[in-house]
Amino acid sequence: MAKTTKLQLSIKQCFSWLTAAVFALTFGLQLLPSAVGATGQLSARSIAMSNSAASGTGTYKLTFTPTSTAQELIIDFCANDPLVTDTCTFAAGTVPTVSFPSSSVGTATSVGSGSPVHTIKVVGLTETLNVPFTITFNSGITNPSTNTSFYARVLTYATNNAQNYSPANTSGNTPVLGTYIDSGGIALSTAANITIQSKVFETMAFCVYQTSCGTAPTLTLGDPTTGALSTASAYINSNAQYTLATNAGGGVGVSMTGTTLCRPGGTCTTGANAFTISAIGGTPAVLGLGTEQFGMCVNKNGSAALTVATKYNDSINSCTGLPAGPTTYAGTSKFGFDDAASADGTNNAAGSQILSSTGAVPSVTGSFSFLGDIAATTEAGIYSTSLNMVATGTF
Amino acid sequence: MPAKQGKSPARLYLGLSGGLLLFLILLIASYAPAITRAAGLQDRSWQLANSAPHATTDYSTTFTISNNLTLGSISILLCSNSPLESDFCAVPSGLDVSNAQLTNQTGISDFNFFTPAPNYLLLSRTPAAVNAPLTVKLTFHNIINPDTAAPYYVRMAAYSSNNATGSSVAYGGLAFSITDNLQISSVVPPYLAFCSGLTISGFDCRTAAGDYINFGELSPTHSNQATSQLLVATNAANGYGVQVYGDSLTSGNNVIPALANGGASRPGTSQFGINLRANTAPAVGADPVGAGSGQPAADYGQPNQYRYVSNDTVVSTPAADDYRKFTVSYVVNVSAAQPIGVYASTLTYVAVGSF
């Protein structure tokens, strides 16, 4: 009984010691990397691949901080793990293939035989204690042919010692390391390049308005109270605005159709009682008191994307700074209005182009300014016009 | 010397990354068919003859078929929400292509035209090969625009079948905008500028002066003459007329007869007449001057020929006219038998515009 008790105590003691040993071992293993790193572990190590696609080629940029000075370097790519003392598995689908590597510093050569060659030796280096070291392999490394994780085993050597490294494709499954100074493992991965496609809507936002998009623009050109034009003063109204935005890669054209101001009668341009206030025409002109003039200029608000057609371009003031009106006008701006029925006239079915671009147009808000003048013989009456603006994009 | 590597965190990270990557690839792959079909119709444009809401107008489209393909039909769908072929198409409010006609087709000219829905234009032909690039232009007449000013979209798809069934072989989206027409109105107020006086400086009615003519002593041996002036302008679309009212010169019951039928001045014959020209017999008067184009009436427009009939129109023009100044010449002759007296008359000129 007593013996049994003693045995039980022994088992308990053994169990306690075993627990303590497991704890110590686990704790020790946790400390091991830092402890080893203090003596031979390459720290702050990384490899940056410029191309992670399977079978891709690109640069491999290796960075680490040595714990000892060294002059040579081995990089061995293995599929199974990063531990330099372990066996190294390799295949074209699982590790990079090395062929005539070139490096940013030192002299790089491939090491080993068989297929694939997966090891690089670099000599003629200066790896200094605790000084970050970087070497870039600019060519000679082809990624594994499959999307996979793989590992680089990095070892540093003193001069002429790296030649003793024999990789797995030469020595068998376990590399022969030779006398190395520091080592470290790095995990890498190939992955499919992400191809992203998006669809961007064709857009064409064009709005002609008076106060905000959606408010029908109705302007009076004349005295603000009576709406009357006069031979004594020209009148202006700049309250018509437009907003244009499109992603049409082939550009956009804005054309205008409609008549000059006319006194309805028949079809405005014909008929017994049809009279018009003469349009200025295709050559912009300044106001001319006592002469019939109906003209327009276009303000593009400084847009680099838009071009105002010559016929509607105020070469003096770029159609800016004009009174909102309706009010009298005695300024120097130029106005035009080509109401011809021939090509590029507002009475042509295709209209008269007023704005254009050669490509997409970021949102632009501009304005149209209209000028009205009459002569002593301008027939009395109520004149009006309806101008239709059409924006057409080429996508 | 050997270093223990932390394999589990790395592999967990790689696993998660791989999973995310796979998800992205699958997500993108699910959209790939729609994306890859969205091609083949290039340089697309969609033009409206009138962009006003609810206007009945023409639409024209131009596009280039950029791939060799067998073309049997083209569907054109107008939507308010999206140009994407795979999206639901919201029918634009007010749009109606039901009565549209295909009025022009170039590039390909054997399309038959149908309108299966208010927002659907269908062009059908016997399927045949198209050699790219081929630019096609189509014009549709009698389409009613959407009733709201806004952007709208066009989905244009080409099919090998003749009824737009099956998968499209080419596709392109378009956008256009409906916007209100710009209304401009002005008023030109009517005016009729008219004044009379013995003299008027320039063309300014404010300078008109004098309203009394004294012929002096009449004699059978010579004519007596005088002038006054009229200044007229109007923007009356149909012009103006100036009429003269009043009797010939009278003194009690005695009258110097008016030249009712017109004629030359004949001293020794009792007569009273006027005209509006420069005369030499006698030397009196002047021709009309000014920017206007009004002319004396024919009966009063012959030099050395005079006439007077009350209510006659002495000046007229058929259109709006700028300022025109007329000089009225008055000629009085008397015979030896003309009774003694003080002869007088009041003539009134009335200008009437026809607006």
Task: Walk me through the structure.
The complex is a heterodimer of chains A (395) and B (355). By secondary structure, chain A is mainly beta. Chain A has 2 domains: 39-189, Immunoglobulin-like, CATH 2.60.40; 204-393, no CATH class. Chain A has 2 helices and 23 strands. Chain A has helices spanning 2-37, 168-171, and strands at residues 43-49, 60-65, 72-78, 97-103, 107-111, 119-123, 133-142, 149-157, 183-189, 204-209, 218-220, 234-246, 252-257, 262-263, 275-276, 281-285, 293-299, 307-308, 327-329, 335-337, 352-356, 361-373, 381-393. The longest helix of chain A has 36 residues, at 2-37. The radius of gyration of chain A is 42 Å and the shape is rod-shaped. The termini of chain A are far apart. The model of chain A is unreliable at 1-12 and 17-39 (pLDDT under 50). With 355 residues, chain B is mostly beta strands. Chain B has 2 domains: 37-177, Immunoglobulin-like, CATH 2.60.40; 192-353, Immunoglobulin-like (Sandwich). Chain B is 9% helix and 41% strand. Chain B is built from 1 helix and 20 strands. Chain B has one helix at 7-37, and strands spanning 41-48, 56-65, 69-79, 101-106, 112-117, 120-130, 134-144, 151-159, 168-177, 182-188, 192-197, 224-234, 240-245, 250-251, 254-255, 271-275, 295-296, 313-317, 321-333, 348-353. Chain B has a 5-stranded antiparallel sheet with strand order 5-6-3-8-9, with no helix packed on it. In chain B, strands 1-2-7-4 form a 4-stranded antiparallel sheet, with no helix packed on it. Chain B has a 4-stranded antiparallel sheet with strand order 11-12-19-16, with no helix packed on it. Chain B is rod-shaped. The termini of chain B are far apart. At the A-B interface, helix 1, strand 9, strand 10, strand 11 and strand 12 of A face helix 1, strand 1, strand 9, strand 10 and strand 19 of B. Strand 11 (218-220) of chain A pairs parallel with strand 10 of chain B, so a sheet runs across the interface.
